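ARCHIVE CARD
Drawer: 12
Card no.: 0347
Subject: one protein chain, sequence and derived structure
Cross-reference: see card 0346
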Amino acid sequence: TMDRGVFIRSMATRGWRGGLSKATISMIHIMDAMGKDVILVETVGTGQSEVEITKVSDTSVLVLSPDSGDQVQVIKAGILEAADVFVVNKADKGGAEYVISRVEFMLGMRTFHPNDWKPGIVLTEAISKKGADELADVLLKHKEYLDVSGELEKRRKIRAREELLKNVESFVRDYCYQGFVTEGHLEELVDGIAQRKIDPHSAALKIIDWLGGHFKQISAH
């Protein structure tokens, strides 16, 4: 960009679920190590049940458009509950106020305790930069809430656990796959499942047994 303090990196999802690239978390760590005080992650547009962005961000913003008014009614609760801030973009188009009313209605069905964060709703319009300052203010207020309430530490601990388990899962999957391909056992199990000689659950247990045996050999060395 023209601003030397801003770095933008586009990343392909390569089929990774949740609207994010598999390398997103690693990129966030790199940006953090570079001293970037604000890191924005934009998804490709998640489905109704995909809320992976909440597992990598401190604040989640759900961006809606004026033509999504009726869709708000069918958005699953998981998406609405995951959003810390709602943004209705393209506010210059008709229907923006209707979308806000639908979001407010949906939020009104939730129970908020006195110390809970109640998601803010902001109208924006990119060309005229309308609402940009208001959005920045809401994001800063949410950051303050996270710091004061202890929610930030809680979220980051959950994120660390998720990241650890995902790395273990990825390692085990790749290790098993490579080993089974090398030894020719993978296709045997696949054929067995296809021919109904073995069920997927039992086949998976065979892989786990194989993995355990290999780890024992490694530790013995």
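Annotation on reverse: Strands lie at 61-64, 85-88, 120-123. The first strand starts at residue 61 and ends at 64.
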